[in-house]
Amino acid sequence: MSYTLRALLFIGGIVTAAWILLRIRRSKVKVEDAVFWFCLAVLLLVLGTFTDISFWLSEMLGIQSPANCVFLLIIALLIEKIFTLSIKLSQLEDKMEVLTAEVALRTKDLSAKIARVDDKDTHADGDSIGPV
Hints:
Elements: H1 3-25, H2 31-49, H3 51-61, H4 66-127
């Protein structure tokens, strides 16, 4: 694996870890979501520092180049993250539909109650004879 790739992996790991820690401090990201990115940063640091791991892994998987193995690993992890986010998005869309229907029903019910109160006030004012 070239020194350029090793340096990029190491720098990428440090930048990713620092960025995630900064986002956690500013409460911009949930800790549960940050765990994935922090683990990815650690993986980048480990692969950039200990190149024997990528050589061993590429040999075990039958991949010709350790760099290709690193790229394949990173792409697979990112695809997994996208799939997880897609599931969360689908769940949130379902919850949004339920909440929208509930708000519509409550608004309709509240409007009906207001109309009944207005009708009672109108009939009560019309039936009164007035002061004697």
